[in-house]
Amino acid sequence: MQALTQQLVLDRIKDHFPEAIQDVSEPYGLLTLEVTKREVLPIMTFLRDDPELNFGFLTDLCGVHYPDQHQRELGVIYHLHSLVNNIRIRLKTFFSEAAPVIPTATKLFSAANWMERETYDFYGIKFEGHPDLRRILNVDDMDYFPMRKEYRLEDGTRTDKDDRYFGR
Amino acid sequence: MSLAQPNYFSAQDTMDGEFATLNLGPTHPATHGVFQNVLKVDGERIFSAEPTIGYIHRAFEKIAERRPYYQITPLTDRLNYCSSPINNMGWWMTVEKLIGVALPKRVEYMRVIVMELARIADHLICNSVVGVDTGALTGFTYMFQERERIYEMYEQVCGSRLTTNIGRIGGFERDFDKVFYHKLRSFLKEFPARFDEFCRLLERNRIFMDRTINVGGISAERALSYGFSGPNLRAAGVDYDVRVMNPYSSYEDFDFMIPIGDNGDTYDRFMVRQEEIRQSLHIIQQALDGLPEGPFHADVPDFYLPPKDEVYNNMEALIYHFKIVMGEAPVPAGEVYHAVEGANGELGFYLISDGGRAPYRLHFRRPCFIYYQAFPEMVQGAMISDAILTMSSLNVIAGELDA
Lengths: 168, 403
Hints:
The structure holds two protein chains of two kinds. By secondary structure, chain A is of the alpha/beta class.
């Protein structure tokens, strides 16, 4: 059998989901696909269940916020690992801040449960169908999502520090 | 492979209102860290467990978005504080991958030595605490002496002990000195005999085996689904080790084995860690024997602080010093994921840089956080005392759990 390469993985996904892929890149040797929100779960199901690809290990799931990308402010980033073939893949999907809803991956990977709760906790991304979507690290009655870029780290009322000299 | 531990309760057992609720934590001595478990118990049997975490959440990912790269290491120290050098090195390697630094072989070997020492220290704490939770305090006190010797070695390399903040971008702040070599050599000589005593105390101890075998087991399939990694996954029988699968820092140069267990129970996790300690010693010995001569840091003047006397006497060095300290070093835009084999699993750093002085986004893949969610499933139907053992053998470190 031909050894599985990133190109083969990419071709397989392209065959099955011709419409879904918006962007392909390979930063620092890690195959990165940007896919539509609608197709992200079917792609992960395919990657996990295909006997040849075998991406059965959800390494990481996290959110990201780009306030300047119109209609694509929030994103979720998945890292999957095929332990059998030793290939990693990164899937990204972006959607609007106004409707931050994305289907849950808990049905595919039990590990996604807390990772999604963490993402909800910090970015306010709602995972549709999650069994227990509550805050996890922050206090329950917090009324904002602290990792979004509009929340500054320092107390907003402070005047003695000029932001130009301290960080972005 | 079946679950090692048959469930005591059947699916029909709902028995609303029949259970007592027990708060285990957040400051219970047996949790070894600040996290809470609300247990529903029927006598001594656990019907359900509900972990509550976040008591020591310190918003590291948010803080990191405002800090220059070299100031993020102290944050990584406080993740898994039992083996902070591994976290530090993992972070340096992530940054080095982003900016593309070629390291001298000596630096990589030196890092391997320090990281393996940290792994030994971490596993020693975990295993001796498993001993304590079964009632064997003696091993703990003896092993803490050995951990102390490892901490003294950290002190010799970087000046601090627990939260080490060890190294720089591109290497170490200073070379290993004579005292370090002396301490390391005598450790390598004397530790195995003392460690054997510890092994004899527990490994074939009837009481210990009765308490740990078939306790808190998890199948390989469930462990993978739960994103287990490190010794906990290997105890379930999956030979996944980042050091071998995606070698970093010259791990491919060394000859070592990956121990694996059969049924992922507390005893297997204990035994996997025991064997990993021996393998780590083996790696350190190889790295020490093969330690190449050469500089102890890479040639990256944009990131590596120049020596102090040059800063005072050389204009260029002064400029570099100023730029580095103010965090004005040029960093390319890009995204990078780097994983190292932390003491309790795959410790990953996902870094998005937009070319600014601080990361645009930094996410820590914290192994504890990911595998601790399996805890309710692992203790369902078990005794309370077994739940404590399961928790300590999973090596849940509150700092890493809560970030």
